[in-house]
Design brief:
215 residues; alpha/beta; Rossmann fold; Arc Repressor Mutant, subunit A; six-stranded parallel beta sheet; 10 helices; DNA-binding; phosphoprotein
């Protein structure tokens, strides 16, 4: 029986590429597509049973780590593969802790993408060598934590966007928040990380290799 994959990505070219990748596969195929977080949730909560959700982290509407948690709350047995433009060191550990069964950068080769889909749809997990290394070295709750690991998932998402040059208004639009709320989050981030301002945030991100170099 051919396993059914739901693809959630706001870029038509990515969805087209994944359709082409699976077009001739007898064991796994794309059964549906979503272009934003709200549509993804609607399809996950709908009557059709999916064997795998392949999702981007950055989409209009509900997105990122919050979307993974909402998907798992609605369908705990639905495995999730994050297929993201963000490099592994930025979000992989947090995505897996949110409920994802695997994480791949969009720079991954076609063979790795297909292998990850098949493994996760079959009920296993898929971690690249880099993700395995990150999981092994990521500080536990009782370890001496780096300042950015103290941030909540929402705060980390805003931190990541700020250090990669996004304006507060753009972040507010993307996350469907008010500018005031984003500004409050920024203040909380600076306080938790004991940093003096945006320049220090960027410097910290550079020192700890947390800038998005995927583009």
């Amino acid at each position: 029986m051919r396993r059914q994959v739901l693809i959630a990505d706001d870029h038509p070219l990515i969805r087209y590429g994944l359709r082409c990748l699976l077009r001739d596969c007898d064991d796994i195929g794309i059964g549906g597509e979503a272009s934003d977080g709200h549509e993804t949730l609607r399809m996950v909560r709908g009557p059709q049973q999916w064997d795998l959700l392949v999702m981007d982290l950055s989409m209009p509407g509900r997105n990122g780590l919050e979307l993974i948690k909402l998907v798992k709350a609605a369908q705990p047995r639905l495995p999730v593969l994050v297929f993201s433009e963000f490099l592994e060191n930025l979000y992989a550990v947090r995505a897996i802790r949110a409920g994802a069964s695997g994480y791949l950068s969009k720079k991954a080769g076609a063979d790795d993408v297909l292998l990850a889909m098949r493994r996760i749809a079959a009920g296993s997990v898929f971690f690249s060598e880099r993700v395995t290394e990150l999981l092994a070295t990521h500080p536990g709750r009782d370890a001496q934590e780096l300042p950015h690991t103290r941030l909540t998932d929402r705060e980390y998402g805003i931190f990541s966007r700020i250090v990669n040059g996004a304006r507060l208004t753009d972040i507010a639009d993307e996350l469907s928040l008010s500018v005031k709320t984003v500004s409050t989050h920024k203040s909380n981030i600076l306080e938790k990380m004991t940093l003096g301002g945006q320049v220090e945030l960027v410097r910290y991100a550079i020192e700890h290799k947390l800038l998005d170099a995927a583009g």
